[in-house]
UniProtKB/TrEMBL annotation:
Location(s), subcellular: Membrane
Family: Belongs to the cytochrome P450 family.
High-level lineage: Eukaryota, Viridiplantae, Streptophyta, Embryophyta, Tracheophyta
Keyword Transmembrane carried by entry: yes
InterPro entries from the UniProt entry: Cyt_P450, Cyt_P450_CS, Cyt_P450_E_grp-IV, Cyt_P450_sf
Record's protein name: Cytochrome P450
Positions of heme binding: 433
GO MF terms, alphabetically ordered: heme binding; iron ion binding; oxidoreductase activity, acting on paired donors, with incorporation or reduction of molecular oxygen, NAD(P)H as one donor, and incorporation of one atom of oxygen
Cofactor(s) in the UniProt record: heme
Pathway: Plant hormone biosynthesis; brassinosteroid biosynthesis; Hormone biosynthesis; Steroid biosynthesis
Length: 484
C-alpha cells in the first residue's frame, strides 16, 4: 500500500514539476519586478528539487497528527510561510487575518485553484471555476435559492422522510455503519434540492455514476483508458446525459406552466440565462453536487463520533431535543424548519463538530497579480492556501483546541452563522458556502430524530484526514430503539 502511494506521489510530483517548469521563466520575471516593493515573500523552504515538501505534507496528512506539517513550519517561520507542494510554489497561511483578505478577494486578485485532476473533471462554466462578476451573480442566485424560507420549509419534510426511512431500516440491524447510513439520507435530499428527482431508477443511476465520477477527483492527471481519471470522465458523460434530459424536460414544462421554482435547476433555467449558457446548466448542477455530497454526511457521522466520546454533551443534547419532541406531540403539530434551528445547544454541537472535524481543511487560490497582505508578498502565478484547520486548532484562537467542547460556543461571540475570522468551516467572503444554512438544517433534523429515537454504542474507530476526512472503519455503531 505504502509502495503504491509512494509511486503515486512520485508521478504527481513529476507531472507537477513538468507543468511548473513550463511556467518557470515567467514566474521568476514577475518576482524580479516585485522586488521594488517593500513586501517580501514569506520565509519558508522550497524543499527538495522537483518534489518540494510534498512528501512531508502528504505523510503528515496520513498520520495521527495531520497538523504536524503546519505546526512545524509555524514554529520555524510564523503563521505565513512559503513552501512547494504538488509541483507548485505556494504560500500557506494559518493567519486568520490574512485568510480573511484572501477570502474577501477585493480587487479580484485571486482565482480558485484546483489540482489538475479536478480541473479536468470540472466544466468550463462551473461555479467552482468562475470568477469576477459572473461568479458574483451566480453565487448570489444559488445562495438566495438555498437560503430561502420556502425551500427550507419544503426540504424539511423531505429530510424528515429520508431520516425516517433510514432509521426504520435499522430496526432489523444491530450494527450499522454511520458513514454509509448518513450518505443514504443525504444523497436523495441533495438530488431533490438540485434537480427535483424523486426516489426511483433515476436516483439510483445518479448515485451509482456520481460515486464513480468523484473517485477521480484526487487522482493522477492521466486520461488514458483504464486510468481512474478516464473512468471518472466516462461516468460524468453518463451523468450528463441523464441530467441534460431532465434540463430539457423542465424547460418544456416551464414554457407551458408557471409556478414556484422548486429546485436549483429550475432557478438557473429561469434566472441565470445571462450568465450560464443553456447547455452548461446540467454540468453546473452535477458540479454543485461535489461540495455537498460528502461533507454533510461526514458532519453527521463526526457529530455522532464526538458525542459518543462525550456523554455529558450527549445528555444535554438529548434533553433539549426531547423537550421539543414532547412539546410537538402535546400540541399535535408538525415540525417547522425554525423549530429545528432554534435549539441552541444543538447548534453549538454542530459548530463544535465543524470546528474540530475540519471537513474542508483549506481552500486553494492562485494569484493573478502580485498581491501584498500584511507585509507579505504573494507573487503573481503562485498558489495561496488558506489553511482553516490550523486556525481552528490554534491555542491563540480557542482554549484547549483539541477538546470537543460545545459549551465554548455559549460565550464566544459570532457563533453559528456569523462570519468570524477564526471560524471558517464554510469558507468566507466571495465564495462563502451557499449550502451553509441548508447543511445545518439537515444535520439538526438528523440529530433530533436520532438522539430521541435511539441509544447507541460506538465501536472503536479513528479519523483519517487525507485526502479527505473519513472514519477508518466507517464508524460502526450498535443501535437500540428507545421507547418515548
Ligand atoms: C458540512 C457541509 C459543508 C461544508 C463544510 C462546506 C464547505 C464549503 C467551503 C469551505 C466552501 C468554499 C470553497 C472555496 O472558497 O473555494 C464551499 C463552497 C461551496 N459549497 Fe459548500 N459546504 C458544505 C455543504 C454544501 C452543500 C450541502 C452544498 C449544496 C447544496 C454546497 C454547495 C457549495 C457550492 C456551490 C460552493 C461554491 C461556492 C462558490 O464558489 O461560489 N455546500 N463549501
Amino acid at each position: 500500500m505504502d509502495f503504491v502511494l509512494g509511486i503515486l506521489v512520485l508521478v504527481v510530483v513529476i507531472t507537477g514539476w513538468w507543468y511548473c517548469n513550463r511556467r518557470k521563466k515567467s514566474l521568476y520575471m514577475v518576482i524580479k519586478t516585485s522586488s521594488e516593493s517593500s513586501s517580501k515573500i514569506p520565509k519558508g523552504s522550497s524543499g527538495w528539487p522537483f518534489i518540494g515538501e510534498t512528501l512531508h505534507f502528504i505523510a503528515s496528512g496520513y498520520s495521527s497528527q495531520p497538523l504536524s506539517f503546519m505546526d512545524k513550519r509555524k514554529s520555524l517561520y510564523g503563521k505565513v510561510f512559503k513552501s512547494h507542494l504538488l509541483g507548485l510554489p505556494i504560500i500557506v497561511s494559518i493567519d486568520p487575518e490574512v485568510n480573511k483578505v484572501v477570502l474577501q478577494n477585493h480587487g479580484n486578485s485571486f482565482i480558485p485553484y484546483y489540482p489538475k485532476s479536478i480541473q479536468e473533471l470540472f466544466g468550463k462554466s462551473s461555479i467552482l471555476q468562475m470568477s469576477g462578476n459572473v461568479h458574483k451573480k451566480v453565487h448570489g442566485l444559488i445562495g438566495g435559492f438555498l437560503k430561502s424560507p420556502q425551500l427550507k420549509a419544503r426540504i424539511t419534510k423531505e429530510i424528515e422522510r429520508c431520516v425516517g426511512i433510514s432509521m426504520e431500516s435499522w430496526r432489523d440491524k444491530e450494527l450499522i455503519y454511520m458513514q454509509e447510513e448518513t450518505k443514504d439520507i443525504t444523497f436523495p435530499v441533495l438530488v431533490k434540492v438540485l434537480m427535483g428527482v424523486d426516489p426511483g431508477e433515476d436516483l439510483e443511476f445518479l448515485k451509482r455514476e456520481f460515486g464513480e465520477f468523484i473517485k477521480g477527483l484526487v487522482s493522477l492527471p492521466i486520461k488514458l483508458p483504464g486510468t481512474r481519471l478516464y473512468k471518472s470522465l466516462k461516468a460524468k458523460k453518463k451523468l450528463l446525459k441523464l441530467v441534460n434530459r431532465i434540463v430539457e424536460e423542465k424547460k418544456l414544462k416551464m414554457e407551458v406552466m408557471t409556478g414556484d421554482v422548486m429546485d436549483a435547476m429550475e432557478m438557473l433555467l429561469s434566472d441565470a440565462g445571462d450568465y450560464i449558457p443553456f447547455d452548461s446548466i446540467g454540468e453546473n448542477i452535477v458540479e454543485m453536487m461535489i461540495p455537498g455530497e460528502e461533507s454533510v454526511p461526514m458532519l453527521m457521522t463526526l457529530a455522532i463520533k464526538y458525542l459518543s466520546d462525550c456523554p455529558l454533551a450527549l445528555q444535554q443534547l438529548k434533553e433539549e431535543n426531547m423537550d421539543l419532541k414532547t412539546q410537538k406531540r402535546h400540541l399535535g403539530e408538525d415540525y417547522l424548519w425554525t423549530d429545528y434551528m432554534s435549539l441552541p445547544f444543538t447548534q453549538n454541537v454542530i459548530s463544535e463538530t465543524l470546528r474540530i472535524a475540519n471537513i474542508i481543511n483549506a481552500v486553494w487560490r492562485k494569484a493573478i497579480k502580485d498581491v501584498e497582505i500584511k507585509g507579505y508578498l504573494i507573487p503573481k502565478g503562485w498558489c495561496m492556501q488558506a489553511y482553516f484547520s490550523s486556525v481552528h486548532m490554534d491555542e491563540d484562537n480557542y482554549e484547549n483546541p483539541y477538546q470537543f467542547d460545545p459549551w465554548r460556543w455559549q460565550t464566544k461571540a459570532g457563533h453559528v452563522n456569523n462570519y468570524n475570522t477564526c471560524f471558517t468551516p464554510f469558507g468566507g467572503g466571495q465564495r462563502l458556502c451557499p449550502g451553509l444554512e441548508f447543511s445545518r438544517l439537515e444535520v439538526s433534523i438528523f440529530l433530533h430524530h436520532f438522539v430521541t429515537s435511539y441509544r447507541w454504542v460506538a465501536e472503536e474507530d479513528s479519523i483519517v484526514s487525507f485526502p479527505t476526512v473519513k472514519m477508518k472503519r466507517k464508524l460502526p455503531i450498535r443501535v437500540t430503539p428507545v421507547k418515548t
